[in-house]
Amino acid sequence: MSQSPANPLTPTNFVIVDTGCANLSSVKFAVERLGYQITITDNIELIKQADKVIFPGVGSAEHAMKNIIVKGLVTTLQTLTQPVLGFCLGMQLMTESSTEMKKSSTGESNSNTVECLNLIPTKVEPLQAQGNRLPHMGWNTLTKVESHPVLSGISEGDYFYFVHSFAAPISEYTIASCEYGSHFSAAIAKDNFIGCQFHPERSAKLGSKIIENFLALDPQELVSQ
Amino acid sequence: MLAKRIIPCLDVRDGKVVKGVQFRNHEIIGDIVPLAQKYAQAGADELVFYDITASSDGRVVDKSWVSRIAEVIDIPFCVAGGIKSEADAQEILMMGADKISINSPALREPELISRLAEQFGQQCIVVGIDSFFNKEANNGQGEYQVYQFTGDEKRTQKTSWTTFDWIKKVVSLGAGEIVLNCMNQDGVRQGYDIEQLKHARDVCSVPLIASGGAGEMKHFSNVYQQADVDGALAASVFHKGVIQISDLKQYLRQQQIEVRPC
């Protein structure tokens, strides 16, 4: 991989939190394609010291939260002050709670509310797809894009790759929205915490742009948000 | 608006991309990584890699190519073939695949679908179905039947499932997406099996991907418009340069079909 474009006098330290979920390496590769180094870790000290933190995640909130609890990371993640970017389930983990429908091995569906990290005061609920097929899977357009440093260069109508059945509603924390049967948050942010419902690591050039915006971000820019 | 997906499929044998006609007579097309990169850059929306030897050989297969692909491409990809357990799925997903697709192992043990969906999330569990229209079956009226072990013609066999019953069953167990491979059409480029896919669409509440039969651009617009599939998978027309993805997307846009710009 190529050299980091960051200023060599101020070495940056990026980490991906090892939530025990499966898309860790695709997130790492996406960062490396931009010429940056990043470490996958569940070490509390390394996470605390990082300049930027990425929460990846695919799968169920229940499974991921269990891993985070078992690894003893809850307080560490809740007290991070550096910029943090969550992808998909990683975004959902930043909210108060996630209500997921679970299918048992006999095919029955049950609703299950999982307490999350409560970093952004919104709740993830089943996507109101209004008859559209679920999961919401594929490339969809952003319907609204607010001014936010992580979304610099991103416009309404741009396509991103989504794979999910649950979503955060539109709220004061929404910085980008998408529509699939109903409008939902494509990205949310509060202070130093930013989350994308789509997968920037799998959203071609525009996804890379978001990751690059985040890694190049001056943390001061978030303070004024 | 959600775009219709164009999905080049790369059949993999021993680390090379191959293509046969009606699942047979495989010829080598090229190395995986440069081909994957080429398709991602050309505007493919997703890629599927079928390790066609895996399920039928019962041997341990080198999957290191999965992480080599994950390193270079920035679009989603799915790996199929040889995934028989949670541990197999974990290995492939950890290497950077976005989805895994299971076929013969799901027929042997349908509950595997539920266990995989539970552990990794429904969204990354794809069920591949190889469906053959048997003219003689059903008292000569014909029937769509599910086949297994299609990677090896000596072991390919009919199962007791009809295609549409099997689709309903796998969706009820938690499959997140169905790839319906219409074997009669595979590799012969005469168009997708619209009738079968329409019927499949009616019983499939999760994303449905058409596979088998693409030969010209019109076949793609037909399958999106007539069978309302979420994506269309094709191999030879892309590998042999018969259709360029950028031309196809331009054509589909002219037909008022929503696609992501290249």
From TrEMBL, chain A:
Its EC number is 4.3.2.10, 3.5.1.2. GO terms for molecular function: glutaminase activity; imidazoleglycerol-phosphate synthase activity; lyase activity. The keyword Ribosomal protein does not apply. Pfam families: GATase. Signal peptide: none annotated. Keywords: Amino-acid biosynthesis, Cytoplasm, Glutamine amidotransferase, Histidine biosynthesis, Hydrolase, Lyase. The keyword Hydrolase applies. Pathway: Amino-acid biosynthesis; L-histidine biosynthesis; L-histidine from 5-phospho-alpha-D-ribose 1-diphosphate: step 5/9. It catalyses: 5-[(5-phospho-1-deoxy-D-ribulos-1-ylimino)methylamino]-1-(5-phospho-beta-D-ribosyl)imidazole-4-carboxamide + L-glutamine = D-erythro-1-(imidazol-4-yl)glycerol 3-phosphate + 5-amino-1-(5-phospho-beta-D-ribosyl)imidazole-4-carboxamide + L-glutamate + H(+); L-glutamine + H2O = L-glutamate + NH4(+). One of its GO terms (cellular component) is cytoplasm. The active site is at 88 (nucleophile), 199, 201. Residues 17-215 form the Glutamine amidotransferase domain. It is found in: Cytoplasm. One of its GO terms (biological process) is L-histidine biosynthetic process. IGPS catalyzes the conversion of PRFAR and glutamine to IGP, AICAR and glutamate. The HisH subunit catalyzes the hydrolysis of glutamine to glutamate and ammonia as part of the synthesis of IGP and AICAR. The resulting ammonia molecule is channeled to the active site of HisF. Heterodimer of HisH and HisF. This is Imidazole glycerol phosphate synthase subunit HisH. It comes from Litorilituus lipolyticus.
TrEMBL record, chain B:
SUPFAM superfamilies: Ribulose-phoshate binding barrel (SSF51366). It is found in: Cytoplasm. GO terms for molecular function: imidazoleglycerol-phosphate synthase activity; lyase activity. It is an enzyme of class 4 (lyase). The active site is at 11, 130. The keyword Cytoplasm applies. The keyword Nucleotide-binding does not apply. Belongs to the HisA/HisF family. It comes from Litorilituus lipolyticus. Its main location: cytoplasm. Pfam families: His_biosynth. It comes from the Bacteria. Pathway: Amino-acid biosynthesis; L-histidine biosynthesis; L-histidine from 5-phospho-alpha-D-ribose 1-diphosphate: step 5/9. InterPro entries: Aldolase_TIM (IPR013785), His_biosynth (IPR006062), HisF (IPR004651), IGPS_HisA/HisF (IPR050064), RibuloseP-bd_barrel (IPR011060). This is Imidazole glycerol phosphate synthase subunit HisF. It catalyses: 5-[(5-phospho-1-deoxy-D-ribulos-1-ylimino)methylamino]-1-(5-phospho-beta-D-ribosyl)imidazole-4-carboxamide + L-glutamine = D-erythro-1-(imidazol-4-yl)glycerol 3-phosphate + 5-amino-1-(5-phospho-beta-D-ribosyl)imidazole-4-carboxamide + L-glutamate + H(+). One of its GO terms (cellular component) is cytoplasm.
